[in-house]
Write a structure and sequence with these properties.
2 copies of one chain form a homodimer.
Chain A (H helix, E strand, L loop, with lengths): L1 E2 L2 E2 L2 E3 L12 H6 L4 E5 H6 L3 H6 L3 H4 L5 E5 L2 H6 L2 E6 L2 E5 L6 E4 L1 H10 L4 E2 L12 H22 L12 E6 L5 H14 L3 E4 L8 H14 L6 E3 L5 H9 L4 E3 L2 H8 L1 E4 L2 E4 L19 H5 L2 H9 L3 H28 L2 H12 L3
Parallel strand pairs in A: 3-13, 4-5, 5-9, 9-10, 10-11, 11-12, 12-13
Antiparallel strand pairs in A: 1-2, 6-7, 7-8, 14-15
Helix pairs in contact in A: 6-7, 7-8, 8-9, 10-15, 11-14, 13-14, 14-15
Chain lengths: 355, 355
């Protein structure tokens, strides 16, 4: 399956504030990435959507010669903003930056993403925390559906459904850990009808096994002719497990966050480069990797950079990790075509088993 | 005049701990740099010279396909280390990292730099603060001469003077703000004889005009057939002024430090990119600059990165500034050949006047 001409499954590096932390757009391109993820909530607050619109959209603002999926910011409003108040009509909140008061309706959130010129747009939803009572989860499902309908109606004021150049609009599934609510959400969102479906409200504190169950259950109920996107996941193991369940799109801060804190992803598992064992290690992070970091720099040098708080260390390691994720997705795509996915999953899982 | 095949005057980016802050070696190479500066004191303490030696030297450790000048660390011992005790034989100090006790003789400092495989080696000297009494300045000159002699004697146990592949050894001039002491230091250091001469102990708190006077006086007394290196300077104005006095080598943290704090060097003077005036500025940092940052990114985007504490901002601006310095030195070299130095100095000074 493809999305916007890009073969799935894919991983999207996270450019929350319009930058994949420490990396240049040409570096991201050199990894083979075609779609980045950014965040409407953050960009709406800073620098403001009008500035970005004046540049012709977010891709042009950040000089990214590729596509962008923007998260609506629903999750950020619920996890970062203060003094939050949810009404039938939208969300009122205080900016986590300057405390300023904002009110956003589902229509506003579509407008923001249209101004950002996102290629894939996510509607405003109501995510819930974990654990979450059945009543709260039920209400979040209801509101997410109402808002999804309003989002779609608003979106198609600007485009005809047959317009091949229009952005894509996804639907988001909620329902917390309750299978019947997940199923209800799927039925409601799918009957509205979207270009793809995102499984939201997972990986918010649940056990891994429970996350995998929810994703597997949801993916089995979603239409198989549209891409399924698992929001905010994950580790190599998460991705392999969710791909097996039929999911095709992923985003996660893990490769860059781990890169900033000194942990490398390799084909032999994670490596904590601060460990003293690497103090005179002349080899690259991963002998099987052909990225510019592994082609040029030793573990000992990168360890020295981290120990000396040199910015270059986190930059090099972020690049390596983002490159690793790109190669991981290539291997997954090849294995799906070649019928060797199960073998690949077993091989990588050996090194990336959780716990 | 050339040094190690490199046409002078040059600016050397500062890789204190074995990394020019936030920049990759291939980026530095793309700017045209051939010689970086690093610091024996820092590398001796962390990661330790034996580790670097096991990689074949500092250039190989940091994957730098070029040359390196190492500062002896004299200045760092006197400015950063605690519990410092200077004897006739050397300096005893506590590490600023872990408080460990160290004692280094002039011979040790040569050995460290030989292990680092530096291309240009600086002897241990005794810098002084400003203001500095005549008595203290006189004693520093005396000790610097004694140590310089010991450094040279030790150095030439490993090389014959005619060896064309040996590293270069520079002498350092002290004398604070006292012209007669500067002259005494120059006479003593030059009678020992070195491959080049560094003017040390300037820019430690004096007024700019006084710094320029000392440099001009010292340069006028130094032999004109050897490179003169002004340590730890400077701004574009500093460099132009000191080149006019006959100096040929410079190092300074300014381009990267300003880059990390949001100030750009341009051919129209400095630009503070955090200023709100740049919030929707679509143009590059400098329309006259052809670096990859100016070719790709707008002021507004870079301002947004700084305002959002995104690492990419300081990385892009550090690159631009280091590129600017490389071009500044190219222009200076061309102007010296073409006889238009004075015109270039006047033109740039217009935008970089101090105060």
């Amino acid at each position: 399956m493809k999305i916007l001409g890009v073969e799935l499954p894919i991983f999207m590096p996270v450019a929350t504030q319009g930058s994949v932390k420490s990396l240049s757009v040409s570096e991201l391109q050199s990894c083979g990435y075609k779609i980045l993820l950014s965040n409407a909530y953050h960009l709406y607050l800073r620098p403001g959507v009008d500035i970005i619109q004046s540049f012709g959209g977010l891709a042009d603002f950040m000089s990214w010669d590729g596509m962008i999926l923007t998260d609506s910011g629903g999750y950020q409003v619920f996890s970062m903003a203060d003094l939050r108040r949810v009404t039938e009509d939208g969300v009122e909140f205080s900016s986590h930056i300057d405390g300023s008061r904002h009110f956003l309706t589902p229509e506003d959130v579509i407008n923001i993403q249209l101004k950002l010129k996102s290629n894939i747009i996510m509607p405003l939803d109501e995510p819930v925390a974990y654990p979450c009572s059945r009543t709260d989860a039920e209400e979040a499902v209801r509101k997410t559906t109402v808002w999804a309908k309003r989002s779609k109606d608003h979106f198609f004021k600007f485009f005809s459904p047959g317009d091949e150049k229009r952005p894509l609009l996804f639907g988001i599934i909620q329902g917390s850990v309750y299978n019947d609510l997940r199923e209800r959400s799927i039925n409601e969102i799918c009957s509205i009808g979207f270009d793809g479906y995102a499984i939201g409200g997972v990986s918010v504190g649940e056990e891994k096994s429970l996350i995998y169950e929810i994703v597997d259950f949801s993916a089995s109920k979603l239409p198989s002719d549209k891409p399924i996107y698992v929001m905010g996941m994950g580790t190599p193991q998460d991705i392999l497990t969710c791909v097996e369940s039929g999911c095709a799109m992923f985003d996660c801060i893990i490769p860059t966050r781990y890169g900033r804190t000194g942990t490398a992803f390799t084909w032999q598992g994670k490596k904590v480069l601060r460990n003293s064992g690497y103090k005179d290690a002349a080899g690259p992070i991963d002998a099987q990797c052909d990225c510019f970091v592994c082609s040029n720099y030793s573990c000992a040098y990168i360890r020295h950079l981290f120990n000396s708080s040199e910015i270059l260390g986190l930059r090099l390691l972020s690049f390596h990790n983002v490159y690793f994720y790109s190669k991981l997705m290539s291997r997954i795509r090849e294995s799906l075509t070649g019928g060797s996915f199960k073998a690949l999953k077993n091989k990588i899982s050996e090194f990336y088993k959780e716990g």
